[in-house]
Amino acid sequence: MDLKKYCRELPKIELHAHLNGSLSQTTMLHLKRYHADRGFEDKTNAFFDEFQIGSGDTRNITDCFQVFSIAHSLTSTPETLAMATMLTLQEFQDDGCCYIELRSTPRETESMSKRQYLETIIQTIQKSSLNLTMVSKLIVSINRSCPIHDAEEIANLAIEFSKMYPDVVTLHCGEVCNPEEVLQMLKYKPDRIGHGVCIHPQYGGTDETWSLLCQMKIPVDYDSHHFRELYDAEIPLIICTDDKGVFATSLSQEYRLCAETFNLTQSQLARLSLNACQFMFAEEKRKLLNDAVLNFINKNEL
Ligand SMILES: [Zn+2]
After folding, report:
1. What is the 226 CA–ligand 1 centroid distance (Å)?
2. Catalytic: 119?
3. What GO molecular functions are on record for this protein (predicted)?
């Protein structure tokens, strides 16, 4: 089967996708139209008009930050946040995703509190299960640059909504070069880490950070670069999009890029997806999703 079609059809598991970074151009235009129809103030025009978001676009980091700020301003009411969540989930499903852990940091805006922000996403995810076959879950994120009382407030909300102390934790670890912090994080033993780029000595890590990761085998979820060292060291790896809107990508495109860049066979790709099932946080869905990927493997004799 043609690789592009194959990557689209392969049932995939998304474990690292930030809601606001995942808004596609179509979703953003939809939200902008909603704002315009209701006469809401929209400050994003000047930048948005000159901004052509297309697949394969290369952007500098300033452009990327501007996309985040547009996304934030377009999701600042409960209505638009709900729409953004629903449209984004639909896009992941259309791309062949069968399970997603969407993540977002509760944000206070003029029209909602952090609590309302969280309630809105949770209710939208619950409603989405009526129309979508994809299983959707939410990871409540805390931005480490925020003040400690904000972090505590979000942690308390997460505990309240999940009705239990969070027994699973994932950390952005080694996204930038900071070996000291990477060591501290690995020693904390999170259930998964995101990115894990600057851990290998060749990419800004040290021998110590790398050997600790190899020893602990903490699963790493990330987009497809710096794949080889982690794959060869048999560290559990999950291919994810992170911010598919900002980087104009999709989960199937990340799988395809990974296959093309690192010469993986279709069978190896399918096994990456199968493996990802082991590291999803929703224990009660594991068998269902595992069977879905296995069926695909058997049907296509991979
Ligand atoms: Zn991330």
Report:
1. 15
2. no
3. adenosine deaminase activity; metal ion binding
